[in-house]
């Protein structure tokens, strides 16, 4: 397989990447009391030394009392946490890498396995955890304004600390996605509507504030998923027209790059075409896109949480789509979590050294 096309540079605004491979954001919960330590900085620096083009951090939460349900998820606020992130980006740059934090608010959550709870009730569009079950409060207009300001502050801090871009976590059933998703958004105000485009006001307000804080030249990525933890086959946008209306609102608000989360990148988004989510997002908005989902592995990431192992698999289908121009960047999760040298091995054809993925890799910062 000829992977040369993945090793072409990519530039957009503040982003100047040496290749097209992105480390997908992956929560590691190795930051006690929300403070990323030297071990976290070293973990990301190893990926930079391993020639990952763009490192996206694990989800790191904004300054709201209940933005996280796990005390070991890193904060992106407070002097100590930001010092840890400053060391991280300096170490990543020293190793020749580029990085952006994934800025996150988890919204309405269930109970963390240790029983730990944040100091305030969870907050979300309607307090809905799943159909028939609430856990937390519906955000007031004042809460919404404060959350938007906290997203903006985090993005401004990302730029000030020297990060190359910022990614907003708008996927996987967390706060921004809870507004997009008709099951968790039961509001009766302007933040709700019949279509996903009509439920995008909260997201566009967040994006506009982030843009205002970072200026025109700083790249803003948003991660989106049609799938939900409550329903892996869900489609909020059921047609290309609905998807175009949704994504173009986000682009107009200030998004530069769409990070289109799928469990398996080769699955078509709509009938009648083999284009995947990233392929459609690029076609409908003209913006660069990132694809993700089981690149180089035989099983998807949810099977990994269930304890199943995955074996290395061919990149041929990925390359076919990439070379056709479907997307600009390729995010890789578990392979890079388990092996900081994964990108170098792909680049240099060291395929016999590629490892599979088993969930033991989650237990430490390799
Ligand atoms: C341990 C782990 C933690 C994850 N945490 C996040 C996260 O914080 N934010 C996010 O957007 N996705 C998260 N994901 C999803 C990954 O970014 C990625 O989309 C998924 O693993 C599919 O890519 P892969 O098949 O290459 O692993 C996580 C996945 C794993 C395995």
Automatic annotation (TrEMBL):
InterPro entries: Aldolase_TIM, OxRdtase_FMN_N, YqjM-like. Keywords: Flavoprotein, FMN, NADP, Oxidoreductase. CDD domains: OYE_like_5_FMN. Gene3D superfamilies: Aldolase class I. Pfam families: Oxidored_FMN (PF00724). It comes from the Bacteria. Residues 5-352 form the NADH:flavin oxidoreductase/NADH oxidase N-terminal domain. SUPFAM superfamilies: FMN-linked oxidoreductases. GO terms for molecular function: FMN binding; NADP binding; NADPH dehydrogenase activity. Its cofactor is FMN. This is 12-oxophytodienoate reductase. It comes from Chitinophaga oryziterrae. The lineage of its organism: Bacteria, Pseudomonadati, Bacteroidota, Chitinophagia, Chitinophagales.
């Amino acid at each position: 397989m000829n992977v040369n096309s993945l090793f072409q540079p990519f530039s957009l605004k503040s982003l100047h990447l040496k290749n097209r491979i992105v480390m997908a954001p992956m929560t590691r919960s190795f930051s006690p009391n929300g403070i990323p330590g030297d071990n976290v900085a070293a973990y990301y620096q190893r990926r930079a030394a391993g020639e990952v083009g763009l490192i996206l951090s694990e989800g790191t939460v904004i300054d709201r009392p209940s933005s996280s349900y796990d005390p070991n998820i890193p904060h992106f606020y407070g002097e100590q946490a930001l010092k840890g992130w400053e060391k991280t980006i300096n170490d990543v740059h020293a190793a020749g890498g580029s990085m952006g934090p994934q800025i996150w608010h988890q919204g309405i959550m269930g109970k963390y396995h240790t029983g730990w709870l944040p100091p305030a009730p969870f907050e979300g569009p309607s307090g809905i955890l799943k159909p028939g079950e609430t856990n937390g409060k519906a955000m007031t207009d004042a809460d919404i304004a404060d959350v938007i300001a906290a997203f903006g502050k985090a993005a401004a801090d990302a730029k000030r600390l020297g990060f190359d871009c910022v990614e907003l976590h708008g996927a996987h059933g967390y706060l921004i996605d809870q507004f997009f998703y008709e099951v968790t958004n039961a509001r009766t105000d302007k933040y709700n509507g019949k279509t996903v485009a009509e439920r995008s006001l909260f997201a566009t307000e967040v994006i506009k504030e982030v843009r205002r804080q970072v200026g025109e030249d700083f790249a803003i990525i948003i991660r989106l998923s049609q799938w939900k933890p409550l329903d892996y086959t869900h489609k909020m946008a059921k047609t290309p027209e609905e998807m175009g209306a949704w994504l173009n609102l986000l682009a107009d608000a200030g998004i530069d790059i769409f990070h289109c989360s799928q469990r398996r990148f080769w699955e078509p988004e709509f009938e009648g075409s083999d284009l995947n989510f990233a392929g459609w997002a690029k076609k409908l908005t003209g913006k660069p896109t990132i694809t993700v989902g089981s690149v180089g592995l035989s099983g998807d990431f949810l099977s990994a949480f269930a304890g199943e192992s995955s074996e290395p698999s061919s990149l041929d289908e990925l390359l076919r789509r990439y070379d056709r121009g479907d997307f600009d960047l390729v995010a890789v999760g578990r392979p890079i979590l388990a092996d900081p040298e994964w990108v170098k091995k792909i680049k240099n054809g060291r395929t016999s050294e590629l490892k599979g993925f088993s969930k033991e890799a989650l237990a430490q910062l390799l």
